[in-house]
Amino acid sequence: MSGNLFVLEGLDGSGKATQATLLCESLKQHGMFCRTVSFPDYAQPSSALVQMYLGGQFGTRPGDVNAYAAASFYAVDRFASYRQFWKNDYEQGTTIVADRYTTSNLIYQLTKLPRSQWEDFLFWVQDFEYGKLELPRPSLTFFLDMPPDISQQLLEQRYQGDHQKKDLHERDLAYLNACRESAYYCAQQLSWHVVACSAQGKPKTIPEISTEILRQVLRFSGQS
Q1: DSSP letter string over 88-120?
Q2: Number of continuous H segments (helices) and E segments (strands) in the chain
Q3: Phi then psi dihedrals of residue 199, to 5 deg
Q4: What is the rounded distance in angstroms from the CA atom of residue 165 to the CA atom of residue 82?
Q5: Hey, which residues does 37 pair with through a beta bridge?
Q6: How far apart are CA 130 and CA 18, in angstroms?
Q7: pLDDT tens digits for 15-31?
Q8: Which DSSP letter does residue 13 get?
Q9: Are 24 and 214 in contact (CB under 8 A)?
Q10: Closest Cα partner for 183 from 195, 168, 171?
Q11: Cβ-Cβ contacts under 8 Å for 23 (sequence gap 6 or more)
């Protein structure tokens, strides 16, 4: 029997990696077998096209690579990761916590298309990744909603003010704001859980956010 797949999604600087680690540790304390995965998998050759895209080798703006091409780069990386590294664990019942997933293709690529084409793209991505590539569908998806103006401050701290370390997406604030709008659309259409990661213009504490995520996961798992 396959395990559950819990996805933590959000814009750059929203704390996904930290929350993924904390969630997995908490689930282990509740007696679950759990492991984390992260995308893109920069340590593997399958991420080569993603790295070229984010590095600006196909154009200096996100829109220089169309939504379908860019989505394909990320999907292939996920396919390689799944087949090589976590398919067996997942199929044997291990709970997987993902820092980004197919959901990122929806958020980041929808903005490149007219609003009238968003529904078709949602169908295409899900058919391609879950259908054609046979990747597992998430059990629950959480969108960590950190406003871009706040996440930019957190990225400044991460990179110690070195703007050259930001990738093609991270340096484009207008693009990130548009991605936040597409995330709201996806959350509504696909029943994602939106987790507010700020209050009164300041980021919430890490424990405040992790407590909300764990509460929802335990409720889904019947342990609330």
Answers
A1: HHHHTT-EEEEES-HHHHHHHHHTTS-GGGHHH
A2: 9, 7
A3: -150, 130
A4: 28
A5: 98
A6: 26
A7: 899 999 999 999 999 99
A8: T
A9: no
A10: 195
A11: 6, 8, 97, 210, 213, 214, 217
Per-residue pLDDT of 28-72, as tens digits, reads 999 999 999 999 999 999 999 999 998 899 998 888 999 999 999
Q: Domain 5-220 adopts which CATH fold? A: Rossmann fold (3.40.50)
Single-letter residue type at 91: E
> What is the chain's length?
224
Q: Is it the case that residue 162 has pLDDT exceeding 50?
A: no
Domain residue spans in the chain?
5-220
Tokens 């696909």 found at: 190
Report residue 100's pLDDT band, with 50, 70 and 90 as the boundaries: very high
pLDDT category at 174 given cuts 50, 70, 90 is: confident
Q: Residue for token digits 């959000």?
A: 10
List, in order, residues 6 or more apart from 29 with CB less than 8 Å away: none
Question: How far is it, in rounded angstroms, from Cα 90 to Cα 74?
Answer: 20
Dist CA 47 CA 2 (whole Å): 26
Instruction: Assess whether pLDDT exceeds 60 at residue 155.
Output: no
What residue type is 86 in one-letter code?
W
Note the pLDDT tens digit of each residue in 104-116. 999 999 999 999 9
Evaluate if residue 152 carries a pLDDT over 70.
no
